Amino acid sequence: MYPMPDSVYHILQKACYDCHSNNTRYPWYNNIQPVAWWLNDHIDEGKKELNFSEFGSRTLTKQAKKLKKMVKEVQKGGMPLDSYTWIHRDAILTNKEKNILIDWATSLSNQIAAPVPIQK
After folding, report:
1. Are 55 and 63 in contact (CB under 8 A)?
2. Residue 36: HSE in the Cβ half-sphere, 13 Å Cα cutoff
3. pLDDT 10s per residue in the chain (120 long)?
4. C-alpha angle 3-6-8 in degrees, rounded to nearest 5
5. CA distances from 38 to 31, 77, 88, 89, 101 (A)
6. CA nearest to 12, candidates 60, 46, 61
7. What range does the domain containing 80 cover?
8. 1 lies in a domain?
């Protein structure tokens, strides 16, 4: 994984990692069916779309595309999902937090996508 500022890490941890990493913190209601099925399906879909724990194993092109998609989702307010923030109120991103994530992901995406100069 790429180094990231603490500010970015803390935002991702509180608002993204439950569905987009291998470090899911399952809530108490995960023990109730059919809620557990819905929750597990939701988390599986989130990890399939973007899993920060396995991000470095993707090709550079896919990494850059995932970061660009992340930026678009944060900009339009699509992430984190409303269904997540209903229970996890602390995951609601402030404008400042959105800007921090957008700036970081845009910068990293540009670095990844930049062609490497050939040394002679």
Report:
1. yes
2. 7
3. 678 999 999 999 999 999 999 999 888 888 888 988 988 898 999 999 999 999 989 999 999 999 999 999 999 999 998 988 988 899 999 999 999 999 999 999 999 887 666 676
4. 80
5. 11, 22, 17, 20, 28
6. 46
7. 6-113
8. no
Would residue 98 count as lying in a domain? yes
Number of independent structural domains in the chain: 1
Residues 58 and 36: their CA atoms lie apart, in Å, by: 29
The pair phi, psi for residue 18, each rounded to 5°, is -60, -30
For residue 120, being part of any structural domain is answered with: no
* Beta carbons within 8 Å of 112's beta carbon, 6+ residues apart: 60, 63, 64, 67
Contact 60, 41 (CB under 8 A): no
